[in-house]
Amino acid sequence: MFLFLGCDHTVKCSDIIGIFDIEECSVSRTTANFLNACQKKKKVVYVSQDMPKSFVVCSDNTYVTNVASSTINKRGKI
What we know:
Layout: E1 2-6, E2 9-12, E3 16-21, H1 22-25, H2 29-40, E4 44-46, E5 54-58, E6 62-65, H3 69-76
Parallel strand pairs: 4-6
Antiparallel strand pairs: 1-2, 3-5, 5-6
């Protein structure tokens, strides 16, 4: 099964490691370090140019999207 992240981006559900709210996690130094490391490795994909609301960590990349983490979670449930 695939999960739609917005703006023509989909990922396989089996590749998803975690779905995170960007406001809740951005205050953590650990999260900032993780996102910076992904950025340096060119493993961050910006799904939209709009204000980011969440990020999805997958086995290959980290996707930053303007879709809320709660909405992405709902989309993943059958």
